[in-house]
């Protein structure tokens, strides 16, 4: 079903500046709660768990495969999100989302989920069988944005993603000396992301339909679920239609590129 046209800009100037400075912006009501509910129904079915019987929630995390059914694609392609992509990445410089990728469903549990370490999402070198050898470079080859889509209501106890505000600036400076080749996840993680350890934390909380649009270099982490209702969240990339560039004229530089340039120039 086509969406109604979105009038006006999705993000204010202040929100764009926040994205450059902090590395993310939160958009409430980015997609309808009804769409989130339709997506959850599919995920519950595929999980093998019963939403009304907590005794079936036997693992702290269940990972489900790629999802490209209508509720998922509808959630990622609303007018407000497309407008925000234009504002942050540049009109005509990104590809519409055609899949939500994998879903880590997080359930209330006292067990360690085993995947709660700080990291950045790498974006090329997928051909290597060891994911720690996948790579990211200072021009964010292969990724225009990191996105967090909340398909359930997420409070502070519901395993919200932890975000280190401003950490994208630290990663940009760490990547710059490596040039186009970039660094592997193993190289980036060698010091446990100590370079951003002093950054303040934000929790990616919000109602179903909330989306966090994040700089590709943002350091983030999962955490154990201490609430009562499972958390449904997707973390797809926004893929670039053309490579990011750190040498565009100022007037053509996107906020994603601006953040990297300002970090390298010492302006942030």
How would you describe what is shown here?
This protein is α+β, with helices and mostly antiparallel strands and 268 residues long. The chain has one domain: Jelly Rolls. Helix content is 25%, strand content 14%. The chain has seven helices and twelve strands. Helix 1 crosses helix 7, helix 2 packs across helix 3 and helix 5 crosses helix 7. The termini are far apart. The N terminus is likely disordered.
Could you state the oligomeric state of the chains shown? Answer: single chain
What composes the largest sheet?
5 strands, antiparallel
Q: Total number of β-strand segments?
A: 12
In CATH terms, the superfamily is B-lactam Antibiotic, Isopenicillin N Synthase, Chain
Our count of domains comes out at 1
CATH architecture: Sandwich
* Morphology: globular
- CATH names the topology as Jelly Rolls
Distinctive features:
268 residues, Jelly Rolls, five-stranded antiparallel sheet, 7 helices, disordered N terminus
Write a short abstract of this structure:
The chain is of the alpha+beta class and 268 residues long.
Question: What's the SSE blueprint?
Answer:
Elements (H helix, E strand, L loop, with lengths): L12 H10 L1 E4 L5 H15 L13 E4 L5 H7 L2 H11 L13 E4 L28 E2 L8 E6 L11 E3 L2 H9 L7 E2 H4 L12 E3 L7 E4 L5 E2 L11 E2 L2 E2 L16 H11 L3
Antiparallel strand pairs: 1-9, 2-3, 4-7, 5-9, 5-11, 5-12, 6-8, 6-10
Helix pairs in contact: 1-7, 2-3, 5-7
